[in-house]
Amino acid sequence: MSLGRLEQVVPGTPVGMTADHARGGASAAVGRDVEVVDAVVIGAGPNGLVAANLLADEGWDVLVLEAAAEPGGAVRTAEITAPGFRSDLCSAFYPLGVSSPVLAELGLERFGLRWRHAPEVLAHVLPDDRCVVLSRDVDRTAESVAAFHPADGDAWRAEFARWQRLRDPLLEAITRPFPPVRAAGRLVRSVDAGDLLRTARSLVLSARRFGVERFAGRGARDLIAGNAMHTDLGPDHAAGGVFGWLLSMLGQDVGFPVPEGGAGSLTDALVGRLTVQGGRIACGRPVTDVLVAGGRAMGVRDAEGGLVRARRAVLADVPAPTLYRDLVGVEHLPGRFTRDLDRFAWDDATIKVDWALSGEVPWTSPAAGSAGTVHVGADINGLADISTDLACGRIPDQPFLLMGQMTTADPSRSPAGTESVWAYTHVPRGLRWSADRLRRRADRIEQVVERHAPGFRDRVVGRSVAGPRELQEHNPSLVDGAINAGTAGIHQQLVFRPVPGLGRADTPVDRLYLASASAHPGGAVHGAPGANAARAALARAGWTGPAYHAAVDALHRVLYG
């Protein structure tokens, strides 16, 4: 069996600003044609495409510059294991995508997006091969968790009833600019006055503590903790409980759907909509500099020296450190801001393996075969051990796997009777992964699957392995394999994301907006950071009086000195 790798499609490395740019950038245009648009969007990932769509809807002339050969960022699909087997190169399941008010307002179904579901949402396979199943049928989920403790069926129904009361204002609050005043008001009104502080307390509980307080058996507790591990939060991290609960309740409500034909279908819909609205995308055109003059973003320079003047805004769908250190340059930033940026915390690195299988995964537990997403390798205590290893810079001997059975969710992904499947696992940041070391880790991942699905390896007809370096080569925003553009830890959420500030898309540079998952509300494909950046740019363009500039300057002095 050969070891596959994702193809490198992004040449070069961004560099910092030059002295000419710091003096205003205008002199750099001498002798060159300069494109002029209303807004430049750096990066054609989902957030960048959402931002571009919203600006184009308002009649803005929008140009999106993408370093890779095609748009999509981490939302792309290709045949990388065997002919006829379609693999999502990074993200795959979209519970927040299908429930996001931002994406719903774009009406992407009119541009070809179709959602598909596996028979069951998620299965968490325990070390003893028992399995707890999350289903869109609440009675089916309740029955599964009750098998571990009779009281947990009713407890799960009670959690889902709470979710149904909170759902709309909560999702509105998550996906709108911070602070979400109206949504927060609706959220408060949806909670009994006597339970308001109790609800607030639950938001900071670890996944373990949340599970202990809500459920009596290990099945439901492991579901919550396993879903929290979709972030970089282990079962004993503060606020891990709310992430695990949110994903669990979304799964119960809307499932973990996938775009028919592959994740790239979501990108195709965003691109198609933008094109209809008059927006443009230029791929294979990496941005190396944001041009700054007088504290204001004036445009960008690409790797070939081409200049684009932005009359109204520059929006950046790139990680915060990349934007501020590489594209802007610290000389244009307040000293306190750059010191805060030094404390920016990434999420864990990632290794991903894709397989083409000649048949379905032969799970010992039949219930796992009907789920689109499968958690394999650890119960809550095992997850705690893995989290400790990662925090200490150790590679866990027993990896926890998040697996996707893509043909089970969408039969178009591979020939009839076969399965396109992937798994990813977290590893410490900063390690060097040679081809041999990466191959051995992929073999270890296969061993974990084989233990719970004897005969799995005999069905492998193709394999592709991507370590942290390969993931970053595929998409430079996946820095060292970090898939969420920064930790989900509570110290880097809300007004602390990406640094202590306003929790908004605005930056210390006027008319420059952070539109990536490094901004509030963070990772997952829901489009909120891009939408928030677009709304901020629209608001800035509509309010340009001296009072606005004085208010912004005052806030920046308070925050950054």
Tell me about this structure.
This protein is α/β, with parallel strands linked by helices and 561 residues long. Among the domains are: 19-69 and 283-343 and 487-560, FAD/NAD(P)-binding domain (3-Layer(bba) Sandwich), CATH 3.50.50.60; 160-251, no CATH class. It is built from 20 helices and 18 strands. It has helices at 19-22, 46-57, 95-99, 101-106, 138-146, 152-175, 181-189, 196-202, 207-214, 218-228, 240-254, 264-276, 320-328, 335-342, 380-391, 406-409, 435-452, 468-474, 528-542, 546-560; strands spanning 34-42, 62-65, 77-78, 87-88, 115-116, 120-125, 131-134, 258-259, 280-282, 287-293, 296-302, 307-316, 349-357, 371-376, 401-405, 419-427, 460-466, 512-514. Helix 2 runs parallel beside helix 19, helix 9 (207-214) runs antiparallel to helix 10 and helix 10 crosses helix 11. It starts with 18 loop residues before the first helix and ends with a helix. The relative contact order is 0.19. Residues 1-31 have low confidence and may be disordered.
**What is the molecular shape?**
globular
Contiguous helical run count: 20
**Which class do the helix and strand fractions yield?**
alpha/beta
Low-confidence runs (pLDDT<50, min 5 residues)? Answer: 1-31
- Please provide the count of β strands: 18
Major pleated sheet? 7 strands, mixed
Proportion of residues in helical segments: 25-40%
Q: What share of residues are in beta strands? A: 15-25%
The CATH architecture category of the domain at 19-69 and 283-343 and 487-560 equals 3-Layer(bba) Sandwich
Here the CATH topology of the domain at 19-69 and 283-343 and 487-560 equals: FAD/NAD(P)-binding domain
Q: Determine the mean pLDDT.
A: 91
